[in-house]
Amino acid sequence: MSKDPVNLDNIYANNVGTFAKIVNTVLPVTYPEKFFDEQFDAKNKSTFFGQLGYFGEVAVGGVRAELIANKNGGVKPAGVYIQVLAVLAAYRGRAIGSRLLSYIEEQSKEHFQHKIFAHVAVDNEEGLEWYKKHGFEIEGLPLKDYYKDTTGSPDAYVLVKQV
Ligand SMILES: CC(C)(COP(=O)(O)OP(=O)(O)OC[C@H]1O[C@@H](n2cnc3c(N)ncnc32)[C@H](O)[C@@H]1OP(=O)(O)O)[C@@H](O)C(=O)NCCC(=O)NCCS
Fold this sequence. Notes:
Number of helices: 4
Largest sheet: 7 strands, mixed
Organism: Lachancea lanzarotensis
Order of helices and strands: EHHEEEHEHEE
Protein name: LALA0S01e04258g1_1
Helix content: 10-25%
Distance between the termini: 32 Å
Bound molecules: coenzyme A
GO biological process, one term: mitotic sister chromatid cohesion
Structural class: alpha+beta
Strand order of the largest sheet: 1-2-3-4-5-7-6
InterPro entries: Acyl_CoA_acyltransferase, GNAT_dom, N-term/lysine_N-AcTrnsfr
GO molecular function: protein-N-terminal amino-acid acetyltransferase activity
């Protein structure tokens, strides 16, 4: 039996540049350096979950999610939010995206969270279809002008999955 060439590994300070390159190559939104640095900032109270996806030795995808602070003042977070999920076009269809999503689902359960949220630009039909196939549903009307520094549509759907 041949060994599965797809693997996941942590995002470290020494490979976060690769993660940033993948995210900013794949997504129409440009994420600034501080977005990538904040997960290593000890003063940051947010909890981030991130992984790089590898095909063989090459990093070709990545995901980062965050526990959502409870705005009602409760201690329990209000769910998990997928901030970015991206796989380089040449490496899609090999279940790398599915593996990255499974990692977020596992982390959500470990943190006793049962709701995962994502935003997807209204013009990203493939992304919307992919999330729906993976159990997400559109919640409410699109958010107007959600994305700022983007070459795509600034409007986003909120997607949610119960886990
Ligand atoms: C959405 C995205 C992350 C999915 O990544 P991916 O690695 O291609 O995802 P998967 O391989 O898990 O699933 C994609 C498809 O391949 C199929 N697939 C899964 N494993 C497969 C395999 N071993 N061989 C062939 N096909 C496979 C899946 O069933 C799925 O089928 P579909 O084409 O009918 O949808 C990727 O397309 C992407 O980066 N898109 C641009 C950015 C984006 O839209 N991000 C989400 C919004 S932020």
